Amino acid sequence: MTTLVTGATGFLGSAVVRALLERGESVRVLTRPNNNRRNIHGLDVELVEGNLNDPDSLRRAVRGCRALYHTAADYRLWAREPAQIYETNVTATRQLLRLASDAGVGRVVYTSSVATLGREPSGRPADEQTPVTIHDMTGHYKRSKYMAEEEVKRLVREEDVPAVIVNPSTIIGPRDIRPTPTGRMVEEAVRGKIPAFVDTGLNVVHVEDVAAGHVQAFERGEVGERYVLGGEDMMLREILEHIASLTGRRPPRVRLPRGAVLPVAYLAEFAARVRRTGREPLITVDGLKMSKTFMFFSSEKAKQALGYAPRPAREALADAVEWLRAHKL
């Protein structure tokens, strides 16, 4: 039987495809006709052209599949048309999972995000049980992912859709060709174009470990449950210092108060709207607001239940820098 992967030309999706191929799986991928397919070039996969907002292409894609890994998402922290984020992350997810269930797909692994999780007031790493509501979500991306995850839970509960949820943290590593917002930060740091930082923290994980966690969730996860796929908690200052050590550059030493950066973020978004390029600004208002809370998380549930075993975060940073040097810079 065949396994379908959405978002397969992207950063995480292509890593999931490689993990499945290494296990001898027959893999089908859904891709737009004009997508950059560099990440899956040369891989033995079946292509189905279409997109998440085209029901007919989704029906073709899920036909005859035993499994679905839905990694595709609109992960922009800023968009000229925010409705597009909800259309892709919420509406299309609902439609795809229903079609997959109708087609007899035996199990779905849905890629959510740690953005949907609560935060511990004490500063301790949050986990799957940390209380949260939609009112805690900052910005359209986080709200859309929260709404999508709630919809997946409802489909499991009310329509017997066999879905397992995974919540990756800050993913870093090779083949972030678009790049993601985090990948763009790493790229700019490698170029020496981040002279200062704000005081925040992230949970950094290697993309290949997250891909392996997806397969483990398919094999060992419980339907309706969610599992944090994280790595190591690091301060942003530490991340930038380690990238500087890998590139032989001086690390940024200036810590900026958020109040000083906020006007720059508004100006950056205004400029992006005026230029109409569609490119997300490096600094966004929502991203800055999110940085107020450290994004620290525990993956203990996934480790115990799935056998999840992430490598040190510095290896993810080193692999990302090495790939950038070899393929992009």
Folded structure, characterized:
The termini are far apart. The chain has a domain at 2-175 and 204-232 and 296-311: 3-Layer(aba) Sandwich (Rossmann fold). The strands form three sheets. A seven-stranded parallel β-sheet has the order 3-2-1-4-5-6-10, sandwiched between helices. It has 329 residues and is α/β, with parallel strands linked by helices. The protein has helices at residues 11-22, 55-62, 83-102, 139-159, 181-190, 207-220, 236-247, 258-275, 285-290, 300-306, 313-327, and strands spanning 2-6, 26-31, 45-49, 65-70, 107-111, 163-168, 170-172, 196-197, 201-206, 226-229, 232-235, 254-255. The longest helix is centred in the middle third of the chain and has 21 residues, at 139-159. The chain is globular, with a radius of gyration of 19 Å.
CATH superfamily of the domain at 2-175 and 204-232 and 296-311: NAD(P)-binding Rossmann-like Domain
Taking the alpha carbons of the first and last residues, their distance comes to 40 Å
Low-confidence parts lasting 5 or more residues at pLDDT below 50?
A: none
Q: Give me the number of helical elements.
A: 11
The CATH class of the domain at 2-175 and 204-232 and 296-311 is identified as Alpha Beta
Proportion of beta-strand residues: 15-25%
